[in-house]
Amino acid sequence: MKWYSKYLSVYEKPFEAAPAATIATIKENLQQLQNDQPLVSVVVIAYNEGKRLLGCLWSLSESQCKYPVEIIGVNNNSKDNTEDVYKAVGLPYYNELKQSPGYARLCGLNHARGKYYICIDADTLYPPGYIELMVSHLEQPGVAGVYSLWSYMPDEKHSWLGVKLYELLRDIHLRIQSARRPELSVRGMVFGYHTEWGRQVGFPVHIKRGEDGMMALGLKKYGRLFFLRNRAARVITGYGTVGKDGSFFNSFIKRAFANLKGLKYYFTKENHYKDRKENIIE
């Protein structure tokens, strides 16, 4: 059985249908994890994630970490019952009424007490050793940030072989890209860094996507970005923007053409990126 199998019993399901015993277990586990003097702050951001947040928190509640941890949440102006989920499991959380991923992450960053900050997305499930592996690499000299890899949820719409082939090709692409432009390979759901340096850089709040990459770009002046490829740190998530392209084939073709146009990315470094008009929040 996969490490995430049991979490799927509540993932993408109405929160009202979740077993009371499961909610109680998650609440107890989270309370046992919380430390008043955390070395690492694990911050979950959520916008309309009432059907997915409980699964995410269940996975985090079973984390095995030797470092002192705090787990906090951010409710980014959700219109569903996201806030009810935070309340039900007793997780400390903050309401951020200004809506964008940048505002949500910035809210968490401003309230974090740990030396290190781990970004968590509410639609993602995390393996038990994830936090410890991320922090162990952040503890290494010269490392400003750490990012890892992700796989996709199994479902009836995507074949197992198609998913694995897509992930393999994508992982190869990210590995090559990370040599010169690691900031382009960073995703917020699998990203951690030094809290104080993150505050110095800040998150852009005016864009729909890419706030994580911009943070990573700014952190490079403090040290290197470490690409954690250990399978024990590979998270599992939904299909997101990949799913919007229709099939995996369409998604692969679209991204392949985009990367062919930007072959220079593999051989050069960049210190500034211009936001596309369609990515600006009006």
Automatic annotation (TrEMBL):
InterPro entries on file: Glyco_trans_2-like (IPR001173), Nucleotide-diphossugar_trans (IPR029044)
Domain of life where this protein originates: Bacteria
One Gene Ontology molecular-function label: glycosyltransferase activity
Gene3D superfamilies xrefs: Spore Coat Polysaccharide Biosynthesis Protein SpsA, Chain A
Keyword Ion transport (UniProt): no
Pfam families per UniProt: Glycos_transf_2
Domain Glycosyltransferase 2-like: 41-184
Keywords, alphabetical: Glycosyltransferase, Transferase
Family indicated by similarity: Belongs to the glycosyltransferase 2 family.
Protein's name according to its UniProt entry: Glycosyl transferase family A
Organism per entry: Niabella soli DSM 19437
